Amino acid sequence: MKSKDDVRFYTHLTEFRSYQDYLDSRVKPLDLYYTKSRQLARKLVEQGIRGTILSYEEFEATKAAVLAAQTPKAKSRVKRKTHVSAGKVLTDAFLKELAAREEAHRSGRMNSIVFLRDHNSAGQEISGYIDYANRLLTHDLEPVFRGDQKLMPLRSDLCFYNWTKQDTASQCSPNYEVMYDSPESLLFRNKRDNKILDLEFLLAGGSDDDFQRIPVQSDLYTQVVLYDHHIRTF
Fold first, then answer.
1. How many CB atoms lie within 10 A of CB 192?
2. How far is residue 211's CA from residue 144's CA, in Å, rounded to a whole number?
3. How confident is the model at residue 73 (pLDDT cuts 50, 70, 90)?
4. DSSP string of 90-156?
5. DSSP β-bridge partners for residue 230
6. How far apart are CA 81 and CA 194, in angstroms?
7. Which residues pair with 197 in a beta bridge?
8. What pLDDT is recorded for position 80?
9. Is the Cβ–Cβ distance between 117 and 223 less than 8 Å?
10. Which among 17, 18, 130, 183 is most buried, taking Cβ atoms within 10 Å?
């Protein structure tokens, strides 16, 4: 068990619903491409191929300590922050689409992926695929809906690419596993219902009952595409 002084460095563990999700966050796309096995890639990560990693027992104990250390004020703030888009005057089509989906993503009925292409503050062209439900959980998006900030791809998102610097990154999220059939073929598997999003198939005009590709014309971003996914419950 980590000490109270150490616990604050592990607050990110609360983002992971399981130890497997924690390991998945350290698995790289090339690990999956060469091993052809999620289980083997996880085992390599657990053995330290990506640096120091918590054991299952350490993960569970540290995550519990982090949750226990949260102050009542912090817990109540998390409970209150439910609809950050509520009451905002929205004029951009993309922000309207995000707002319309916020409640469904917070409640777990949807797991949409957002593709964004735009320029960062340094004028560099970047693009990426964002797990919208996870971004709502891990970041305060109220400034985005107020118009004070822009929703931008991050290196911690499902996929990130800086076209100017030729820099790329990819991470699994609590909701999606990033998969590669080949270095050029990108797939996303939803961890809740195991449905797979094939980007190239939908881009080529294919029809998918599980994912809907929705291009959005935005005055704020160079390119926006929503990949809507409704979670099926049986």
1. 16
2. 25
3. low
4. --SHHHHHHHHHHHHHHTTSB--EEEEEEE-TTS-EEEEEEEHHHHHHHS--HHHHHTSS-----TT
5. 110
6. 29
7. 188
8. 47
9. yes
10. 130
